[in-house]
Design brief:
Helix content is 78%, strand content 0%. The protein is mostly helical. It has one domain.
Length: 96
Amino acid sequence: MTENWMGSLAALGGLLLGLFYFAGLWFTLRRLPGHPHPALWVIGSFVVRLAVSLSGFYLILGPDRNLIRLGIALLTFMAARVVLTRYLRPTPEPRA
């Protein structure tokens, strides 16, 4: 029972990390054209997103270093990417 509970928490954690990472990437790219220092903006965003994601995966891994939980979290992380890619797809401009 505890393994199921921990697996569910790992899936939720991976999903939340994926939503944070890829929504942050989307936000960064949307703000990029008008930003006065685009390289600093992209690098800073990458460092923050990477630090939060790696810290989250480290916490999900846990003190017992359970690779099953980490695998579940990574799968849901990538599932969040697929969901956000489909949800935030740019709409084509209508032709005049």
